[in-house]
Amino acid sequence: MPFSELIGKILHLRRSRSTTTPATKEAPAAPARVSAGPTGAQRRAISAQAPLRAAETTLDFELVNNTTSSTVYAYITGQALDNNSALFLLQADGQTAYYPSSPSSVGSALSADCAIPLGAPGSSKKVTIPHLAGARIWFAVDAPLTFLLNPGPALVEPAVTNPSDPNIDTTWGFAEFTWNSAQLYANITYVDFFCLPIALTLTNAAGSTQHVAGSDANGLATVCQGLEAQSAADGAPWSSLIVKNSSGGYLRALSPNDGIVTNSALFQDYYARYVDSVWAHYAAATLSVDTQASYGTLSGRVDGDALVVGNERFARPSAADIFSCSTGPFANASGSAERNAIIPRLAAAFNRSTLLKEEVTPAETSASYYKEEVTNHYSRIVHEANLDARGYAFPYDDVAPNGGGDQSGSVFDGAPVLLRVAVGGNGASA
What we know:
Residues 56-410 form the GH64 domain. With 430 residues, this protein is α+β, with helices and mostly antiparallel strands. It has three domains: 58-216 and 404-423, Thaumatin; 220-262, no CATH class; 271-373, Beta-1,3-glucanase, C-terminal domain (Metal Transport, Frataxin, Chain A, 2-Layer Sandwich), CATH 3.30.920. It has eight helices and 24 strands. The strands form five sheets. Strands 2, 3, 4, 6, 8, 11, 12 and 23 form an eight-stranded antiparallel β-sheet that branches. Strands 7-1-24-14-15 form a five-stranded mixed β-sheet, with no helix packed on it. The longest helix is centred in the N-terminal third of the chain and has 16 residues, at 3-18. It is globular and about 65 Å long. Residues 1-50 have low confidence and may be disordered.
């Protein structure tokens, strides 16, 4: 399994468990994602980039305020790999670690100030982190974020699907990363929602750079207007994903998965016609699923009312199954290793609606993505709003053919020197 896909799966599991945890309930004792390190082609790519800097135990990040606000805060959270995977937050000075102790009650306040001020527009702040897994760089504009603690300790994070969350009216977003002894892996994400433009630039020991552009400063308006236009075109509830602030302006756009969490009536039968067409097509045709793993390429045909791929049977997915990539036939908690290799490729093909365009998944070219009337238009619109068309827009958006272009908006290197993370989109470029 490619490392990027492994990280995508782990990040997806973490999102489904922690980001919707209200402060009144006990959170899991620890986040659900842990990096297992690079494998396969990605290990070879790292080897070709630069020598590993395994002796390094800290890494610098440069956090840049490219908004128009002078009140921007950053936060860094994760699991400290060199400290028994303890819950970690970086304090406001950008240098001091904070390892919370387990509180006696749910919803307890942090005992350290972890809001890192970025200063005026155009300014930057250099911070230093240890090895971290399941980590996030959070940004909040015009107001700080509230993080709470539950026994464990477990971090209660901001959640856009919890109407009682203290951050529900705040403008905020995040990028994700893991840094271990093998490499730094980071990505921008819109899997839960779109709010703030975030860009990444990674520099390694050889001086080479990788860049993920994000959107420009008008990215949120572009996405929300695209959702409104799509609702006008097909009558589906895409515009219901838009969240507005008290002044009537755009605050964020929820992903369809998070939209369904807030309103289970959304998109109930949205994919039914497309799924019926896929089932009818593969009753006669053969689908090739490249697992990009030891199982090789597996053949798929409809048998009765199931799509059979290799030794695995898949029932018809609902829209909620497709958008979440983790329920119904795509639930993989107890599946076989073969099934777990198939699921990302099928889930990606349904989100991108490529199964009637190409009889192979991953589809051979991104030119076939989102071309059907029924598709994940949120993902399409988000990719179009990004200057380089990259960024996780659904949980398995890192699925790509061998040698194919990146969709997920990720950077990775075995010898990182500096990760520059810019928020706001002003001056953004591909």
